[in-house]
Design goal:
Blueprint (H helix, E strand, L loop, with lengths): L6 E11 L10 H11 L3 E3 L5 E5 L6 H20 L3 E4 L18 H10 L1 H4 L5 E7 L3 H12 L2 H8 L4 E2 L2 E2 L5 H6 L5 E2 L7 H13 L10 E2 L1 E3 L5 E8 L4 H23 L9 H14 L5 E3 L4 E3 L1 H19 L2 H5 L1 H7 L2 H12 L1 H14 L2
Parallel strand pairs: 8-9
Antiparallel strand pairs: 1-3, 1-4, 1-5, 2-3, 5-11, 6-7, 10-11, 12-13
Length: 365
């Protein structure tokens, strides 16, 4: 294989007041100090109470652990100087989105103008994983194959059961909010890179979008880097879980290219069927099974994960992340963040959930 399968991880954090546990806007001084320390690895997000970080290009999960740990520690240290704390969760447990305002940037003002109420509800945070693939045709060829596994990644990552103080009954309410945006959901299937460019270029030529960064599919070719960018995951309160999901994504890409090198490929299924698994992951996380379309049966998630890890063992071993993806068995056994948050709230109330999320952010640092 010629590809090195480099990875990059982007995370969006919410900032909370350490006393009230409510969301708080990032002061200019905080953004300035973070920029000084992290340069272009940090940026404001759509809402003033959000902050985004991105690792450098990493060759493996070990490098990503070092860089992401540095990013998380720096944000936590600088935020504490303002009596704030970051939490890596996709929806705040009790804050009303209508009380928040977007960051004062032309791009965000234009987004709110175009999308109105849809944009104003975007009080959500996600995790994006980039995997390096050298050539554009390979990115397009792999995209529909990798899309089959997006529900698996979503189920393992779910961290947003609450919205405006209410339990939504979903493991990932973030996706319900995000799916109101245009150009979201599972990616279309393209026959070639040229077809992808012609299709997306139509919207660019008409002035509907500026570039392909305004296409927000669950999986897309990156506009800036030679990568496939998975955007399906809820952000992870614990860094080790984020790294495990990044390693799983990286291993999936390597496995699919390994199949191609042997003149094989993952079977294609209609988006209608994959969307059903996407919904099951969004609704239940890992507590119910996903549909195994080959077996034509709903199978327990722990069984599917064991089979997936076995399938990827050769690739994870080569990439040095087999131990990391094996920890996802603990996520299935003990619950995703959504399960943990619900347990804390049932025992001690909504403010305790934020305290728990602060503790989890610092747990692996």
């Amino acid at each position: 294989m010629q590809d090195s399968f480099t990875i990059g991880i982007e995370e969006e954090y919410l900032l909370v007041d350490r006393d009230s546990f409510a969301l708080a806007a990032a002061p200019d001084a905080l953004m300035t100090s973070c920029k000084t320390a992290l340069q272009d690895q940090v940026s404001p997000e759509f809402m003033q109470c959000q902050i985004e970080v991105g690792t450098k290009v990493c060759t493996n999960v070990a490098e990503a652990r070092s860089d992401l740990g540095h990013l998380r520690r720096t944000i936590a240290t600088e935020a504490a100087k303002h009596n704030l704390a970051p939490i890596a969760v996709s929806c705040h447990p009790f804050t009303d989105y209508k009380q928040q305002v977007h960051t004062d940037k032309d791009r965000y003002a234009q987004l709110e103008k175009e999308l109105e109420g849809v944009a104003r509800r975007m009080l959500i945070s996600g995790m994006h994983v980039h995997v390096g693939i050298a050539d554009n045709p390979s990115r397009i060829d792999l995209m529909p194959q990798l899309a089959y596994f997006l529900p698996h990644l979503l189920a393992l990552s779910t961290s947003s059961p609450f919205w405006q103080g209410e339990d939504t009954g979903l493991a990932s309410y973030r996706l319900s909010v995000f799916d109101n945006m245009p150009r979201t959901g599972l990616p279309p299937v393209f026959a070639s890179w040229g077809e992808y460019e012609r299709t997306t270029g139509t919207l660019i030529d008409l002035g509907v979008i500026q570039d392909t960064t305004q296409i927000w599919w669950d999986l897309r070719p990156s506009d800036h880097y030679p990568t496939l960018e998975s955007r399906i995951c809820d952000v992870q309160p614990r860094m080790e879980h984020a790294l495990a999901l990044a390693g799983l994504t990286q291993s999936l890409v390597r496995m699919l290219l390994r199949l191609r090198d042997n003149n094989l490929r993952w079977r294609a299924y209609d988006a209608f069927l994959i969307s059903e698994n996407r919904w099951r992951a969004q609704r239940y996380g890992v507590t119910e099974g996903l549909i195994d379309f080959g077996e034509r049966a709903i199978r327990p998630f722990n069984v599917m994960l064991d089979e997936l890890i076995a399938l990827l063992a050769e690739d994870a071993e080569a990439l040095g992340c087999l131990d990391e993806i094996a920890t996802l068995r603990d996520v299935v056994a003990n619950g995703t963040s959504s399960t943990r948050q619900r347990a804390v709230r049932a025992a001690d109330g909504p403010e305790a959930v934020v305290r728990h999320l602060i503790e989890e952010f610092h747990a692996d640092l």
